[in-house]
Amino acid sequence: MPTRKQKRREAKAKRHxxxxxxxxxxxxxxxxxxxxxxxxxxxxxxxxxxxxxPPARGRRTPQPPSWGRAGRxxxxxxxxxxxxxxMLNKTHNYTGAAVAAVLYTALFIxxxxxxxxxxxxxxxxREQAPTKR
Length: 133
Description:
Elements: H1 4-15, E1 22-23, E2 29-30, H2 37-40, H3 67-88, H4 94-128
Antiparallel strand pairs: 1-2
Helix pairs in contact: 3-4
C-alpha cells in the first residue's frame, strides 16, 4: 500500500502530465521524432541499465537452511557474548564469560537452523500456492 507521500507524488505527476507537441514547417502537428541512443545520453554518461522486475513484495528469496550457515552465525554471536560478558563482569572472570559464550553458541545453532528452515518452507508454500490476483 503506498504511503501518503507516494500518493501525493503520484497525484502531482498526474496533474502536471503534459505532451510534447511537434509542429512541422507548415504548422501541422506531427509525431515526435524517435530518439537515438546518443540523444538519450546526458553529459556523455552511459545510458542507465534496464532494471529487472523486483522480487515479489520486495523481498529476497531465502536460501535453503544449512548447518554451516547456522554455525557461522552462532560463532559470531558467541564472540559477541564473550566480549560483552567479559567486559561487564566486575571480577574480570573470563572463564565464566567463555562458559556462557559456549552455552549460548550451542543453543543458538539449532535455533537458527530451525528458524531458517521455517522461513524457507513458508516461502516454498507461498510460491506453490495459486495467486489470488
